[in-house]
Amino acid sequence: MMKQALLIFARNLVYGQVKTRLAATIGRQRALAVYELLLEHTVAVTERLPFDKVVFYSEKIDGGDIWNDRSYKKQVQAGNDLGERMRHAFATVFGKGYQKAAIIGTDCFELTTLIITEAFECLDKYDVVIGPAKDGGYYLLGMKKLYPGLFNDIQWSTDQVLKQTLAACEQLQISTHLLPALSDIDHEEDLKNIHI
């Protein structure tokens, strides 16, 4: 049986520390409510997936939260920037013998169970699978082994992330498949599809 892992990067649900770009325009209380909705959505689309699921918390493991212990393993992110944290998460699961792994965040309200399943299926044919976000980043990154080069020299949290990641794939001669482009929820205008 192939060992497959879905890694979920989640922020701890703390007032004033989630969706800070969004909070700047809609206020902290509403930003917290939006993030809660995004967490609920992420649980809804991942809970029944037949892969091992590991939630990597930004600060500490929260007991008794939305990520139930039956469906999700729990760890804390390690590293100074997003690239280091993601590289460490992939290294952790590949070090435990997993043959496929994909990482997602909790900012994409358009993400579906089907798209995540497609990502893992595409790893049968491709080295790397990327879900492009419409803001120039990505909402999913999947691979069959660790490619540390995909986490170096990337301008995280900018519109250059996808472009720089694809350039790194080309340089490393990694076969790459792109999933459908989806929107992340980062700014007030992104909320038009969410009723809250």
Q: Can you put this structure into words, describing what you see?
A:
InterPro entries: Nucleotide-diphossugar_trans (IPR029044), Trfase_1_rSAM/seldom-assoc (IPR018641). This is Glycosyltransferase. Keywords: Transferase. GO terms for molecular function: transferase activity. The structure is a single chain. With 196 residues, the chain is α/β, with parallel strands linked by helices. It has a single domain, classed as Spore Coat Polysaccharide Biosynthesis Protein SpsA, Chain A (Alpha-Beta Complex). The protein is 31% helix and 18% strand. The protein has helices spanning 20-26, 28-46, 82-95, 113-122, 161-171, and strands at residues 4-10, 52-57, 73-76, 100-104, 128-132, 138-143, 176-178. A seven-stranded mixed sheet has the order 3-2-1-4-6-5-7, with helices on both faces. The longest helix has 19 residues, at 28-46. The model has no long low-confidence stretch (mean pLDDT 92).
